[in-house]
Fold these 2 entries.
Entry 1:
Amino acid sequence: MSAAVVMYTTAVCPYCQRAEQLLRARGVEHIEKVRIDLEPSRRDEMMQRTGRRTVPQIYIGDHHVGGFDDLAALDRAGGLTPMLTSV
């Protein structure tokens, strides 16, 4: 079982697509996508939760990972897989 993954995203975001590809490569089967382009009120929620305006913004469990660059750095450092497998 893996930790819940939530990603704030838009339809045309190449970094969102890369983040999803990386997560799937690490065994994540379900990503809850919050489409801030379809639900503008969720953008405000994202900005309040993260302090950031850009997508993607990724949460693994209750931990805010950040955007794609942060996710990729976490993976390179060997921290992504353990975070995904902790429940």
Entry 2:
Amino acid sequence: MERSTIKKRINKSLQVGFPLLLGAAILVWTYHGFDFAHLWSVFDQGIDYGWMGVSLLFGVLAHVLRGWRWNLALAPLGEFPRRSDSVYAVFVSYAANLVLPRVGEVSRCGILAKYDGVSFARSLGTVVTERLVDSVCILLVTLSTLLVQSSTFARFFHQTGTDGAFFLHLFSTTNFYITLLCLAAMGVLAVWLVRNLTLFGRLRGLLQGIWQGCLSIRHVRRPWLYLIYTIGIWACYFFHFYLTFYCFSFTAHLGWAAGMALFVAGSIAVIVPTPNGAGPWHFAIITLMMMYGIPKEDAGIFALIVHGIQTFLLILLGIYGLVALPLTHPLSTQKK
């Protein structure tokens, strides 16, 4: 076997294996010493699946709105895919991210290229801009939440070893090592994305098309609708998470302010390259919930159940998208 082939296989194995191992390591670390028998007592007491169902509906709606918003960004480029195809592509992309974090952004552009003849480079550019818009949104939400819940976040940063004085206690907290590991993983992801995107652009000559896609937002014909979709997406994300509080007796009393704080912490945690933020998300949610007086075991069970159900939803939507796309496109109409 050629050395280049072996190298490629090793790289692919690392791309898939590293996020899984990282997430598993943080999960084991976070749940070390947990009394999992408490999980069965929570099921015995009952989970309000009605609220969980409403929460999941908001999760689906967020992805639908993202697909519709994507069409608005593609229109100025002369690309007009079916709205349903854009939604299905978003479904598939989030499921793909469970296998290899951030590969979904590329896969959904490939889907529109296959089924609607959309320029891969231009659509990738719109996705890059979309991520920038999302970053601005989460920044605004974070700043607003920090103003309202500043004392809670101050205690969170202190307990995770990331407050201003953490250098004095560098080796005194286990939580600090988890935080440091997550930050290092985010750095590795950033380097990998920049390196591969640059290489891909150089080999395929796609940088110009990507740049055109990035600038398409300036020429959106209905910017007010783009804004409404953006607000709707993040409102749905919030309710997708917040309504799960009402599924459990020990979190039902938490108000919207606590929901915002936990939502921000979880949104930042999923940036770490693990499947759907598994591990870092649990760590952040458990740590912050304890600030609101939720016992560690209850917080751990909440994180485990909610993350598991929401991840399962992504898998189901991804399967649905993969099945629906070829069924709605006869082979003769698929773009080569």
